[in-house]
Amino acid sequence: MEKMYRSLLKNNMMKRVLLIILVGLFSLQSFGQNGALYQNWYLISYEYDENIFNVSEIFPHIEPTLTIEQNLEYSGYAACNNYTGSFDYDSTNDLLTMNSFDATLNLCDYQEHNEFETVYFNFFANPNIIDYSIVYDTNGDENLYLESSSGVIFHYRNSQIIFSVNDIELFNINLFPNPVSGELFISSENTVVENIVVYSINGKILLETVNETNSINVSALSKGIYFIELSSSEGKSIQRFIKK
């Protein structure tokens, strides 16, 4: 009898453990299928009215963030204000919906920052249905895309933008012509440029020269905005140029 009792007790314990595991799995699924969603994100660009705006082009530079917790509460920083809120998860359609939103409403020092926050906070404040996707790029970074039912899209990455428009120049260097179609020339006073690296707006290396030079041919680049890193024995200068 005692042996039978122990056997039944053991079976009941195993059933309880199995039930706890199943409940845990169900709970994880109820908060989204991709665990990569729950982390710190940095805004790269946003799109509305069929126009794409790169955060790196906002001046003075800002670094909007979004942190999503496993319970789908979120928080972040826009241009000069903090915000918090929470999502709900539609497990049937694998979608997010806005549940709550709150933000400080300080007036920023720059009009461009105020304009950005108007678009950004409207995205979170409205009762939108959010389609989300996580894409891995060639550098191994994770990219989060949030798209509202009204067609507004925000693109985040789990690593910060490498360069900003207002990076401090460590020595005096000028680029010309800018915009440029072919050869980009470098003018520097009493400075020898030893290395030149051209980056895309997302920080991908596109061109590089390691010899002492005062120009680089960018004719192979597509039209758009790029960053150029110029290195010398005195330090580095990071500047922006436009390929036309």
Basic shape: elongated
Q: Helix coverage percent of residues?
A: 10-25%
* Pattern of helices and strands: HEEEEEEHEEEEEEEEEE
Total separate domains: 3
What does this structure look like?
The chain is of the alpha+beta class. It is elongated, with a radius of gyration of 25 Å. A hairpin with a 4-residue loop joins strand 3 (65-68) and strand 4 (73-77). It has helices spanning 2-30, 111-125, and strands at 40-48, 51-54, 65-68, 73-77, 82-90, 95-103, 129-136, 142-148, 153-157, 173-176, 183-188, 195-199, 205-209, 215-217, 224-232, 235-243. It folds into three domains: 1-30; 35-157, Lipocalin, CATH 2.40.128; 173-243, Sandwich (Immunoglobulin-like).
Summarize the structure.
With 244 residues, the protein is α+β, with helices and mostly antiparallel strands. 18% of the residues lie in helices and 41% in strands.
